Amino acid sequence: MRFATVSGLFGCALLFGCWIEEMETGTVEEDTRTLEEDTRAVEEEDTETAEEEDTERIVGTASIAPKSGDTTLVGTAFLTEVAGEIALTIEMDGAPPGKHGVHLHQSGDCSAADASSAGGHWNPEGHMHGMPDMSSHLGDLGNMIVREDGKGAITISKPEWTAGDGSDHDVLGKAIVFHANVDDFSDPVGNAGSRIGCGVVEPPR
Ligand SMILES: [Cu+2]
Fold first, then answer.
1. Does the pLDDT value for residue 104 go beyond 60?
2. Do 19 and 115 reside in the same domain of the chain?
């Protein structure tokens, strides 16, 4: 009798254990299904968003070479277009740490040793020199902060800019000039000193 009770209890315990286990397994399976459904939903949403928005296109590039005796700096620039908005990203490496004025100059010619061949600031509207977000020169890009490791970057976007239409607002064919000193935004050129880097914005190859 005692044996029957004990084995009965044991059996019950086993059954109960199995039942709990089954319940738990069921929950896990349910969770997995929910996760899969969630993933599918997110993927579908992403695809829809990508179709609605314009994707970013590279519409220009530039390689910035050292000038005026600076021999260590190198730079690259990308001109991008998203939904008609043109942005210019400039990245420098091996540059002197500190703040440096950066401008687009009007002539796409960096051949001179001091980059004087790039001419003056690109200023088709005849504005005063200033900060990039003011009604300043179309080529006013502000200052880039170069860190102790010699690296720095800026991204500037201007609603007036175009890329490749040949108009007087076209960024292609302009020279990116990287200066030795900070641009203090005073007219006419911001006292940014010598031109230690120069590169022409060209159509992507
Ligand atoms: Cu300049």
1. yes
2. no
